[in-house]
Write a structure and sequence with these properties.
alpha+beta, single chain, 277 residues, three-stranded mixed β-sheet
Length: 277
């Protein structure tokens, strides 16, 4: 049907619903097996593009060609993309949790008792305070579950370090082995202060990728620069591509270097070794 032949029909909605049924029967039967929604969307997009090349009974042109004739008569798309999600207004609890659809999702502790908006989509849950996005979690379809982001609770654990081993948000948080090794050495040397410095090192994950922080910890362990002051320095030097410059006065446990004066006789063993056949 060309644009000058467009007619409004009272049964247009029924045709839309019939097309949904067609897509379900032809694109989703048998049920696709995919690893993510993105992969499913790509499969559906390919199926739709394949259908555009078909010629329906009673027509001479493809579905794609006929759509291009109808395009000028369509309304323009909205200026802002449509958010395909459910929105709910709620309040953050004293435990920095937001309840949505039978589950609790964590937010940073500084937003406790604040009014927030929860945007629940098929794949994820986004929590906003005003115009600021403060948390994003994968959608959970179980019931009575608590979905934590451990980094949300690190500012509180920095003040209450004795709760580090019992904190529920940190349970199951898998970190590279360098973190556990550094914590063990810090607590062995500085006891409670070492535990606080370990939490401060964890807080670097709030701003830097895990791979960069892990590399900085590896370098700190190699240099035996076991302090919070050293790790950010090594991390920034790595990112900026600069050599580290550690102040030796901050590490009194390091052995003092002792460089002897070189004399000519020190080279005699080397000369003798070079003269051997």
């Amino acid at each position: 049907m060309r644009p000058d032949q467009v007619q409004l029909k009272t049964w247009a909605k029924g045709k839309v619903e019939a097309l949904v049924g067609y897509a379900r029967r032809n694109f989703l039967v048998p049920l696709p097996r995919v690893s993510s929604y993105d992969e499913l969307n790509q499969q559906l997009l390919g199926a739709c593009q394949k259908r555009r090349a078909k010629v329906l009974r009673g027509h001479q042109d493809t579905i794609g060609q006929r759509f291009e004739w109808d395009r000028p008569a369509l309304l323009p798309l909205p200026a802002a993309p449509y958010e395909a999600c459910e929105k709910q207004a709620t309040r953050v609890s004293s435990l920095s949790l937001v309840h949505y659809r039978g589950n609790d999702y964590s937010v940073p502790v500084e937003f406790g008792h604040r009014e927030v908006i929860v945007k629940g989509s098929v794949q994820e849950v986004i929590i906003c305070c005003g115009a600021q996005e403060i948390a994003r979690h994968p959608r959970c379809y179980q019931q009575q579950e608590a979905i934590y982001e451990p980094r949300h609770y690190l500012p509180l654990l920095e003040r209450k370090t004795n709760a580090l081993d019992q904190a529920a948000p940190l349970a199951g948080w898998e970190l590279p082995e360098e973190f556990a090794r550094l914590r063990q050495l810090l607590e062995a040397r500085q006891a409670k202060k070492g535990k606080r410095e370990y939490v401060q090192i964890l807080r670097l994950l709030e701003q830097f990728p895990l791979a960069d922080v892990q590399a900085a910890l590896q370098q700190a362990l190699q240099l035996q620069a076991l302090s919070f002051a050293a790790v950010p320095h090594l991390l920034l030097c790595r990112i900026e591509g600069k050599p580290p410059r550690l102040d030796l006065e901050n590490y009194p446990h390091w052995p003092a270097p002792c460089v002897a004066t070189t004399v000519a006789s020190d080279y005699l063993p080397l000369l003798a070794a070079g003269a051997r056949p």
